[in-house]
TrEMBL record:
The lineage of its organism: Eukaryota, Metazoa, Spiralia, Lophotrochozoa, Mollusca. The keyword tRNA processing does not apply. GO terms for molecular function: carboxy-lyase activity; pyridoxal phosphate binding. Keywords: Decarboxylase, Lyase, Pyridoxal phosphate. SUPFAM superfamilies: PLP-dependent transferases. It comes from the Eukaryota. This is Aromatic-l-amino-acid decarboxylase. Belongs to the group II decarboxylase family. One of its GO terms (cellular component) is cytoplasm. InterPro entries: Aromatic_deC (IPR010977), PyrdxlP-dep_de-COase (IPR002129), PyrdxlP-dep_Trfase (IPR015424), PyrdxlP-dep_Trfase_major (IPR015421). Coiled coil: none annotated. One of its GO terms (biological process) is carboxylic acid metabolic process.
Length: 237
């Protein structure tokens, strides 16, 4: 997989298919030229990659603003926020990435609200908590994150697939405020780079493992076998 352009191309296509199905804005798609995604090994891997990317971006900004400070001291300043119902993998990612985590209380509908985040001020929102399948208010959280310059990650591993049903599309309102993952995991030294580096996407820079399984093929089979309406019918059952 690491050296297979065909496998990479199918994975990029599948990610765009999924993005369109759940109603993501064009800015999240590969075809837009500024978005895109890849399949991670698990939800825990995805959250960890997001946290490491957020930490990387925050550290670059802190070092620009405080060039005299030691990196270890700057790292100790980082804090992430999530709801009390967020999956345990969010806390584990914080432990691995040396980022302190604060759990914020939810409202009567088990949803993390923008006013709660504003009082607390990377935040991690959840679309479908594993405990009660509640959805955080992404529109409110995104507004606060944009205003305060926070990195916002949305964990939709548990119930995000329900967004392919039109009746649930309102739950994704405000998703355009979430952040992208950039070069945090790029490990190629300068002496290995060449003029063709930007010709094709190398997904080993988009996650933790260098070798990757052909998971996109399974997704392709499911989509081709059931179709959009077939998948929606399964979720509604």
């Amino acid at each position: 997989m690491a050296a297979s352009p065909a496998c990479t191309e199918l994975e990029l296509l599948m990610m765009d298919w999924m993005g369109k199905l759940i109603g993501l804005p064009d800015q999240f798609l590969h075809t837009s030229g500024q978005g895109g995604g890849c399949l991670q090994g698990s939800a825990s891997d995805a959250v960890l990659v997001a946290l490491l990317s957020a930490r990387h971006r925050a550290m670059l900004q802190l070092k620009r603003e405080n060039p005299e400070e030691e990196e270890g001291h700057l790292l100790s300043k980082l804090v992430g926020y999530c709801s009390t119902l967020a999956h345990s993998c969010v806390e584990k990612a914080g432990m691995i990435g040396f980022v302190k985590l604060r759990h914020l209380e939810v409202d009567d509908h088990y949803s993390l609200r923008g006013s709660t985040l504003e009082k607390a001020i990377q935040v991690c929102a959840t679309l479908g908590t594993t405990g009660v399948c509640s959805f955080d208010n992404i529109a409110e959280l995104g507004e606060v994150a944009s205003h305060e310059g926070l990195y916002l990650h949305v964990d939709a591993a548990y119930a995000g697939n329900a967004l392919i049903c039109p009746e649930f599309s309102h739950l994704i309102k405000g998703i355009e405020s979430t952040n992208d993952l950039t070069s945090a995991l790029n490990v190629d030294p300068l002496y290995l780079q060449h003029k063709h580096d930007d010709k094709a996407i190398d997904l080993r820079h988009w996650g933790i493992p260098l070798s990757r399984r052909f998971r996109a093929l399974k997704l392709w089979f499911v989509m081709r076998s059931y179709g959009v309406e077939g998948l929606r019918a399964r979720i509604r059952e």
